[in-house]
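Somatic embryogenesis receptor kinase 2-like isoform X4 (Nicotiana tabacum), 115 aa
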Amino acid sequence: MDQSVLVIWVFLRLTGLLLNLSQVAGNAEGDALYAQKTNLGDPNSVLQSWDPTLVNPCTWFHVTCNNENNVTRVDLGNANLTGQLVPQLGQLQKLQYLYLICSFCYPTIPMGWEL
């Protein structure tokens, strides 16, 4: 393979990789759910599918989305979680249902949430 062709091929591959990474980083709903995951104790690993490298959190277990891929439901009942709710969950603008049974959770609702 000619060296200039190889350089162009490597450049195009790196550009594609960077575009994919920016799409992952640009998903505010996935980022919000991942922030919640990192603030919860999860002894039964029910949140193990919550992988921030996946572009769409609609593929995660316990997450339901509408046709526009907006998170509408998070169902974590009986998951034996511990921790607190994070303010980033306020970024889930289409969220209609949050079910969470949590042992030793802090009882406060984050500021900025409308009930």
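The beta strands are 40-41, 63-65, 71-83, 97-102. Residues 76 and 107 are 16 Å apart (CA to CA). ok done for today
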